[in-house]
Amino acid sequence: MKALRAARDLWIVYVSTIAGVLRRGGARGELVRQLHAIGNKSVLFIVVTLGFIGMVMAYEACSQLSRITGDYSQIGGQFIRLIVSDFGPTLTALMLATRVGAGIAAEIGSMKVTEQIDALRMSGVQPIDYLIVPRFIASVIMTLLLSVIGGLVMFGAGGLTAEHSFGVNPEIFYDFTQVRPRHLILMCIKALAYGAAIPIVAGFCGLRARGSSEGVGWATTAAVIGGSFAVIVLDFIISAAALFVTGGDL
Amino acid sequence: MTAYLEFKGVEKAFSGKAVLKGMNLAVTKGEVMFIIGTSGVGKSVTIKHLIGLLRIDAGEIWFDGQRVDKLPERKLAALRKRIGMVFQSSTLFDSMTLAENVALPLRKHQRLGWDASLDQARVRLAQVYMAEYADRYPAELSDGMRKRAAIARTLALEPDVVLFDEPTTGLDPVSARRIDRLIRELADKLGVTAIVVSHDPPSIFGIADRVAFLYRGVVHVVATPAELRASSDPIVQQFIRGQSSGPMETPGF
After folding, report:
1. B5-90+160-241 in CATH: which number?
2. Searching chain A, which residue's CA lies closest to the CA of residue B89?
3. Could you tell me if A8 lies within 8 Å of chain B, comparing CB atoms?
């Protein structure tokens, strides 16, 4: 019963957020603040983490190839195809689920336990409009942008690793010809879906915080787990749908 | 005298644990009614039901001839213009100055523009002697100052009723008595009805018109402060004397 109630409440938060976006419920100043908080302040985190992941993945791929065929001509093309269609947006979103999701849940959760959410309602403000709608819009926009940045950094770092560790010619590695429009569309769909899911889950967890600091801690942990889980599940669903739609030609 | 605000057989439980068990209370217009009782007895829960921040499980709540416990969220905005609440922890928004905090309900409820709402906010802050701090942020102020600013925010909408949730808790005695004086002035000069949740004896016996003593989920006694002092009820006497031993059941002790 508790799980059903939670699912219903999550759905209500989602529908209320979409309704808030449609009627432009959020304050413009708050949106700008959230674009900065979610986007600009995450750039370094995303660049560093995806850069390292790109290096490790390229190294592992080259290492395996060197044992089998030693032919590196396809590695760059396949690597960027994989980054665009999956790893770029998914790994970016997983990183954002920790940094942004935790921040949203902690902020809203502490407002909940200190009765500031009730004070907002008393002031005639819909808490979802004021707190979640600007974060939702900012997250959708910035997850897409950061996915592009993160993907490019991942590819760039992978190419450098392949060149320095295995002598792969950069002109061969940096091959974008394998990327088709359907991969770009898939990246956009995934980034938008992840960007929508992270603030909804985090906001929902924050609004469910009870008690005092322990409740905020619970909300923060739940937001990170729930956000990451949502990203993984959405990745599976969207990828499966893409395979179905393209008849396996992805 | 007819009741301006009335709780009729109100019941509320959290996770199966009953807090209010058929509570009845009537408040007349313009009076300062204190709700007292031990921690966890349901005082704050009681007043939050009035403005739809919590929903009752059973019973009825009436305000000015209208039943309000069944109102949907979208209709509560009008009620919340008439019944304001000062929360226990002030609940000012950290990212806003005091003036912006006070201006927020004016912008949302009264649809005032940004500049007009800020001008109004400064007037309201002056009424609680906080005009010179209008451009400061809550974190820069003491608890007493934050509490006064929170009162200014609540009064900005000129409510008919103000609910105070432990307004003097955590304040030094001087600040606490100033808050008391402010509540009393609201009732005497503006005719505002005040419902004050408190267990601060100087406040209770200093400014209350009547006191409702909540015990075991119901109103155990409603009396004037003088009647309460003179009460022969051992439970009432234990509470107002703050005695650790006696007939009163205090969960957790």
Report:
1. 3.40.50.300
2. A114
3. no
